[in-house]
Amino acid sequence: MAELATARHRSSASSASRRLIGRWVAETATAWSLAGPAVALMWLLLLGPAAAVVLLSFTDWSFGQPTMSWIGLGNFREMVADQLFRTSFLNTLVYVAFTMPLSVLLGLGAALLIESGTSGRGFYRTVFFLPVTATLLPMAFVFQFAYFHPTVGIINQTLSAFGLPTRDWLRDPDTALLALGVIGIWQSVGLNMVLFLAGLKGIPKDLYDAAALDGADGAWERFRRVTWPMLGPATLFVLTVTAIKSFQVFDTVIALTQGGPGNATNVLLFQMYQEGFSFLRSAYASALTCVFLLFVLVLTLLQVVLVDRKTHYG
Amino acid sequence: MKTSIPVTRRQILAGAAAAGSAVALPSYLRAQSSVTEIEVQYQSPVVFDPAMKEIATAFSAANPNIRVKYRAPEPGYPELLQRSLRDSITGTLPDVGLHGLNRQRALLDRNLPVDLTPFLKSDPKVAELGYKPALLSVGQLEGKQVGIAFGMSQPVFYFNADLVKKAGGDPQALPADWNGLIELAKAIDNASTNTKGMFYRWSMAGDWAFQALIRSHGGEFVDKTGTKVRFTEEPGQKALQLLQRFVDEARMKDLSDQVMYQEMFSGRLGFMNTSSAELGRFHREIGNRFPLVGASHPISADNGTVPAGGCVAMMFSKGEAKQAAAWEFIKFATGPIGASSMVKHLGYIPSTTVPAEREDMLAKLYRDDPLQKLGASRTDKITGWFEFPGQNGLKITQTIVDGLYPVLTGKKSGDQALADLGQAVQGLLPHA
User: Fold this and answer.
1) What is the pLDDT of residues B210-269, one digit of tens each?
2) Picking from A106-115, A216-225, B69-78, which range would have the lowest pLDDT averaged per residue?
3) pLDDT for A308 beyond 90
4) Closest CA relative to residue B138, chosen from B346, B260, B313
5) CATH architecture type of domain B156-307+397-428
6) pLDDT tens digits, B164-174
């Protein structure tokens, strides 16, 4: 009897575990069939090409060449010694350091002003947002002629009206990158403003009332004690997005300076393009792309980690 | 009846042979009535369109069994090269491409162009086309006829005759050497009237002007093995010292080509170098504002030369029928009739010498426009547009532009820039 009971018990245990396994299989199958299309598309459109680029960066393939061979870290070794890479990398960092804080601060400023105003909000929102919707390429040419042109540009016209020295902004190695930065800032302020506006809308009014009860009544105090901390998540998001966007600067470079003068505006993406499409050095361009991807990845991870740890949510 | 048609064994054999050869004939000969379509691609539509349209019309009239289709032209030679390389991957190359002289190696390295030597050798009509061996040589690489020059240009100097006269010079006897040119530039240069003396388009078409400077001093770019830089030798040093003198003595400014064109066309620049193929543009833009005169690019060394600019017609067709049709088009476009259209609209030197000798073609044009003649002069001193060997060939072009720039801004001396450039290019050459 006891034996029988044990056997029955065993069999019921095994059938239970079989049931468990069956359920696990069914669940897994359902999960994969549900997530499958998304996963497949992600591999097809995102991860697959990225993996191909990574693989390509370890070869010596040159565009259109029928053969390629594995050269290990050769491209990355070349990169370390490449003066041009150092220049373009540094230029990219300078560009990011110049455009990111300014476009974030100006976006925040615009959002605060619009939010604190009582009339014409829709009008100002539209005006500030317009550059985001404008196609950058033609606008870059507008900037080139209307603002930066050495003779007819507004900047030099104004400077010479006051008897100040003028310069050829886009041809001067000292100013060309910053001139492109100005265009970049002009374009990104609008989006930052909208993101900050959304952030401001999410701050409960009673926090201001509570702060006022505690004596924080001035505009600055209200900003410092309530608005700024409550804008934490929005600010972090804006910072990351702006940094990544600045990292990707390319269209103004190719339209206005082609990396010149003397590589003063050669940035990472432009070098990537030149190596890959002008010089046909696809493998080296892939290696540069890897560096770029790494940076974007680090920025994104940084945001995720910081969001988890540091920022307050209302 | 039966015996009234005597059929000998020989006749039967001949008939069989004829039938056999008819089957063996290339399909395009068997199907003379059917039309072969070929696709052709060129670049710079603004410059090339008028000539190419004329050539297509004339070609269709002469070859009713070949239909030529032009693909949308690319903006420039680099874009055309990229397009062709992409097409090679997808197997959709055009039958004929008009590629830049300095892009031939990039295409040959990928085994794309069809060697035209057998066509030149076997086609009996080639003799009538008047191809000059020296002009055919610009399309030769590694023992192959990679392409046939559609049009070639050479570096020339164009002068504003009014400014030359005002500065005490003689527009009919322009200086033929660098010292003379620099003195003239100094005499013309006048800050008070906002007049500039000279502009040397040092970054023209990438390294073309650099090659002109080195070649005209008798220099070489790499050694025979293609692994060692040679432009840093004495001719190269002289060339870059000269570039520095343009800046130091002739007060040449670091300004963009676009700005200097405007200065030239509006009459505020004494003289500038350019490609002889730009003659049409100069005539158009200047109109009657001032008389335009020209001089050859000085050649300082006895063995000195100047590089050719321009493009070759290259064949990519696969299959006999397409190749034969493409060859007909290449012959036509680069031959006397095509060349006449091309010279009229573009001002390049053609591969054929026939049109220049014929009154009904170009003889009159060459006689009446001394600047046209200038562009077609001293063809024995024109050499190929050198392509640096190896996978970094195209990158070296940009490296040269970057390397010369500090001389223009006065940040480096010519000697220093040359030494640095030599080192940079050496690192990009194939290893021995």
Assistant:
1) 999 999 999 999 999 999 999 999 999 999 999 999 999 999 998 888 889 999 999 999
2) A216-225
3) no
4) B313
5) 3-Layer(aba) Sandwich (3.40)
6) 999 999 999 99
Please name the residues between 77 and 136 in chain A that touch chain B, using a CB distance below 8 Å: 81, 83-84
Closest residue, chain A, to B406 (C-alpha): A262
pLDDT for residue A259 is more than 80:
yes
Instruction: Give the integer Cα–Cα distance in Å for B431 and B389.
Output: 11
pLDDT band at B191 (very low <50, low <70, confident <90, very high): confident
Indicate yes or no: CB of B110 within 8 angstroms of CB of A261.
Answer: no
Strand partners, B144: B141
Which chain A residue has the Cα nearest residue B91? A64
Q: Which residues contact A311 (CB under 8 A, 6 or more apart)?
A: A232, A233, A236
Q: Where in chain B are the domains?
A: 35-153+309-382, 156-307+397-428
CB A64 to CB B85 under 8 A? yes
Q: What is the pLDDT of residue A80?
A: 92
Please determine, looking at this structure, whether the domain spanning B35-153+309-382 carries the CATH number 2.60.40.3140: no
Q: Which of A81, A168, A262 sits opposite B406 (nearest CB)?
A: A262
Chains A and B form CB pairs within 8 A to the count of 50
- Average pLDDT across chain B, whole number: 89
CA dihedral A273, A277, A281, A284 (to 10 degrees): 20
Asked if the domains at B35-153+309-382 and B156-307+397-428 fall in one CATH topology, the answer is yes
Cβ atoms within 10 Å, residue A291 = 15
* Mean pLDDT within A135-160: 86
Q: A63 CA to chain B: closest CA distance, Å?
A: 7
Residues of A in contact with B80 (CB under 8 A): none
